[in-house]
């Protein structure tokens, strides 16, 4: 995680704040928490009820003078090593020479000045200093030592360690200062609250949710901006009538709502206001309405679905937040369908306007689906909280930073791919690489359709399910008894009664007369309205579908990194020539390793080393096997955003993509 920092939790003068953090411990450590490891742009906090999640977030949002260190442990080790080198340098080039100078016979110079004494005096006055533990000062201390070291250089004194030192630099330490903190609690609603007033109703002007939270948790409103949604009307009214920069943020928010809920039509979100009525104390008509291009009737916010209202509360405050702010959200999944949860996460991780704000998010959640989604996102850290009961009824809390790729926590929570059953249809693929390729194909194909497209939302209109390791996987790729095969077919039939399934399978170049070929034929014969099996017969594996243009843009990712660093332009030229000579379409019936090995021979060597990383593909007794890191290549192809003109050069990609698209559209509700 290149953007991650260990955030130091400085001691606070407020006893009530320090008392909170004294109950938290990193897993496996005996001393109370002094830093949060690997904080990132998005930080997900999970745990059962009463595991200290919300309490910890309330502590963090009241902290002051936050400092981030890239890998506190490594920086600590680097400081120790640096100071050792400083002491050794000062000893060898100041202390020992001074001692030798003092012990030598006295000398007299015609000019009256002893040049050796002057040199040693100057060097002693520029003695290198040890680094302190004041992290914000580290870089300036290193720069000052470098200035002093340059004076030693004048006299021919060299130390390679200081010449090349870069372990700690301007990117190692980050001051977060006292960021503006926004808190969206579970006690929230987009509805204005009303009370009966005689024969009519009047709007409750006070934010009673906010007052309740302040009573319970004693927040300082000058430190934390708490948004419950009850004053959404007032906030929208002020935003639409504020300075240009605030109005621009609000327009970006309206654009987000338009693109995702109203088919990209022009919309205006308005806090309806009558000044005369307001002056008279009449406020019952103060409502939020949404004007939609092409519609005669204005929609009232409270008439929209709970899901849209829920995401409006979350996204409004994020779009309107100040730059460099910290956003704290309790349980964003409340009233959000899994597809809406994905939309929320996609926006805070990918929306360029929000990325430019440089926001940091801390989010507590109970949602298995939300957690599942975060595992595929970059710049995300996950923390698992658990409670430890003590004999005196005091609780302490253990924090575990879940490493990237550690899925054991999903198993502990009993996570299933529940989106498969909540979406309109499911795309079943063998593994993550197939999922990424299909997403890349679909994204490119839909973009090529222009205005003719149907807007498709993952986890609402369709969801992916990876069947690797399941009985379906064993049925397709292993020797199954006839009774076991019958059971799998029966299970698929039963599942397809209530779930619309598109199942993709590689043939592995199996002959239709082989046992595997017969099973795949049986699978195809099960096709009906709710079940669409699609077998790729014409290639051994999905990587064989990649065209020349795709390989030209991606092959460098599996070349040796040290050579790419030195000869990137030359290697790209060699790749261009090699792929023009070796057509990937000639290898469709072979493992992709055969193609890569022939390319390896054609690319040749630089600095006596093969350019292509031979460990990227399997080596068999006879020939070569599949790509070892399929996921990495598939993620790269997804990130490259190839145009459909590139993909459609392979008719198998066209056929597959159009089949999946039509299947999703036919099941779109």
UniProtKB/TrEMBL annotation:
Q: Tell me where on the tree of life, at the top rank, the source sits.
A: Bacteria
GO terms of molecular function = ATP binding; ATP hydrolysis activity
Residues in domain ATPase AAA-type core?
42-372
This protein is called: ATPase AAA-type core domain-containing protein
Could you tell me which species this protein originates from?
Aequorivita sublithincola (strain DSM 14238 / LMG 21431 / ACAM 643 / 9-3)
């Amino acid at each position: 995680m290149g953007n991650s920092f260990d955030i130091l939790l400085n001691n606070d003068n407020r006893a009530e704040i320090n008392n909170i953090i004294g109950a938290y411990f990193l897993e496996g450590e005996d001393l109370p928490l002094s830093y949060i490891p690997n904080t990132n742009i998005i930080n997900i906090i999970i745990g059962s009820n009463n595991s200290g999640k919300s309490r910890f977030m309330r502590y963090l949002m009241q902290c002051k003078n936050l400092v981030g260190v890239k890998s506190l442990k490594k920086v600590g080790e680097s400081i120790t090593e640096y100071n050792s080198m400083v002491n050794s340098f000062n000893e060898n080039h100041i202390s020992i020479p001074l001692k030798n100078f003092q012990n030598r016979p006295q000398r007299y110079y015609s000019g009256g000045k002893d040049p050796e004494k002057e040199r040693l005096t100057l060097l002693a006055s520029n003695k290198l200093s040890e680094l302190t533990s004041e992290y914000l000062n580290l870089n300036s201390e290193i720069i000052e030592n470098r200035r002093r070291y340059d004076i030693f250089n004048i006299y021919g004194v060299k130390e390679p360690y200081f010449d090349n030192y870069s372990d700690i630099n301007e990117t190692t330490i980050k001051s977060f200062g006292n960021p503006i903190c926004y808190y969206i609690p579970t006690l929230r609603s987009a509805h204005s609250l009303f009370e009966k007033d005689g024969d009519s109703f009047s709007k409750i002007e006070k934010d009673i949710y906010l007052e309740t939270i302040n009573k319970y948790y004693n927040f300082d409103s000058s430190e934390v901006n708490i948004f419950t949604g009850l004053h959404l009307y007032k906030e929208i009214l002020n935003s639409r009538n504020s300075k240009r920069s605030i109005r621009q943020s609000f327009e970006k928010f309206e654009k987000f709502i338009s693109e995702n809920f109203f088919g990209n039509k022009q919309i205006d979100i308005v806090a309806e206001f009558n000044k005369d009525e307001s002056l008279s104390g009449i406020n019952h008509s103060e409502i939020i309405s949404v004007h939609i291009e092409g519609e005669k009737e204005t929609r009232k916010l409270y008439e929209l679905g709970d899901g849209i209202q829920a995401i409006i509360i979350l996204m409004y405050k994020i779009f309107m937040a100040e730059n460099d702010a910290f956003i704290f959200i309790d349980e964003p999944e409340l009233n959000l369908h899994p597809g809406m949860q994905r939309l929320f996460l996609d926006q805070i991780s990918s929306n360029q306007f929000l990325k430019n704000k440089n926001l940091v998010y801390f989010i507590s959640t109970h949602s298995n689906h939300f957690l599942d989604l975060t595992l595929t996102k970059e710049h995300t850290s996950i923390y698992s909280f658990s409670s430890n009961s003590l004999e005196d009824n005091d609780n302490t809390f253990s924090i575990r930073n879940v490493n990237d790729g550690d899925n054991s926590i999903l198993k502990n929570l009993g996570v299933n791919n529940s989106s498969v059953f909540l979406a309109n249809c499911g795309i079943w693929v063998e593994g993550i690489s197939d999922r990424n390729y299909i997403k890349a194909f679909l994204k490119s194909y839909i973009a090529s359709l222009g205005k003719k497209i149907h807007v498709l939302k993952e986890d609402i209109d369709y969801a992916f399910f990876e069947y690797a390791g399941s009985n379906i996987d064993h049925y397709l790729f292993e020797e199954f008894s006839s009774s076991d095969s019958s059971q799998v077919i029966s299970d698929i039939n039963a599942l397809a009664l209530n779930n619309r399934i598109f199942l993709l399978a590689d043939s592995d170049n199996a002959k239709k007369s082989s046992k595997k070929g017969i099973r795949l034929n049986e699978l195809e014969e099960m096709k009906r309205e709710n079940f669409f099996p699609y077998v790729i017969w014409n290639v051994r594996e999905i990587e064989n579908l990649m065209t020349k243009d795709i390989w030209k843009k991606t092959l460098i990712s599996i070349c040796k990194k040290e050579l790419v660093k030195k000869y990137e332009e030359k290697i790209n030229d060699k790749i261009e020539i090699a792929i023009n000579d070796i057509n990937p379409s000639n290898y469709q019936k072979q493992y992709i390793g055969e193609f890569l090995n022939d390319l390896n021979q054609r690319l040749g060597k630089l600095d006596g080393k093969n350019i292509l990383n031979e460990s990227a593909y399997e080596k068999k007794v006879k020939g070569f096997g599949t790509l070892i890191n399929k996921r990495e290549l598939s993620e790269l192809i997804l990130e490259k955003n190839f145009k459909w003109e590139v993909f459609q050069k392979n008719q198998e990609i066209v056929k597959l993509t159009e089949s999946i698209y039509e299947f999703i559209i036919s099941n779109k509700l």
